[in-house]
Hints:
By secondary structure, the protein is an alpha+beta fold. It folds into two domains: 8-78; 98-185, no CATH class. It contains five helices and six strands, in the order αααβββββαβα. The chain has helices at residues 8-37, 42-46, 51-78, 145-154, 169-176; strands spanning 98-101, 104-107, 115-116, 131-134, 140-143, 159-162. The strands form two sheets. Strands 1-2-3 form a three-stranded antiparallel sheet, with no helix packed on it. A hairpin with a 5-residue loop joins strand 4 and strand 5. Bound molecules: zinc ion (2 copies). One zinc ion is lined by residues 84, 86, 90, 125, 127, 143-144, 146-147.
Amino acid sequence: xxxxxxxxxxxxxxxxxxxxxxxxxxxxxxxxxxxxxxxxxxxxxxxxxxxxxxxxxxxxxxxxxxxxxxxxxxxxxxxxxxxxxxxxxxxxxxxxxxxxxxxxxxxxxxxxxxxxxxxxxxxxxxxxxxxxxxxxxxxxxxxxxxxxxxxxxxxxxxxxxxxxxxxxxxxxxxxxxxxxxxxxxxx
Length: 187
Ligand SMILES: [Zn+2]
Ligand SMILES: [Zn+2]
């Protein structure tokens, strides 16, 4: 599955490079606007009125590209060894309880106040794998706490065993290095 993956880290770096170029462009537009507005000739000064909008558009473009880079970083994290195998996100505590809109995600579980500032449900899961789940046909994969909980509730006849039983401490350390910024929002 992972062999035909594009160089996600390289794509993320490109998105950040383009964002940096956009920031430089915004700075150049700002300097140009200053020159226009300090001109002696009134008609020339008035031509500067579009520059604010132009700077704002370019800043927005930079932000969109940085958000794109962050999504690519999450995809790279999700592909790291020791990470949950499910190709969509979950609440770390409650499983498939996410709702996303407008680039924000929250957990619908009553009393859960977890939120994420990206479309978590639309990206592969970045949580560390905690369970080996095998369905009644023998198919399966490693899953995080949230997805494992969900599988336990939905997959009739599935076998769910903790990875701790079979995994060395060093392998666990590898999984834990997959950075999940949303971890900080845990109570
Ligand atoms: Zn939750
Ligand atoms: Zn998961």
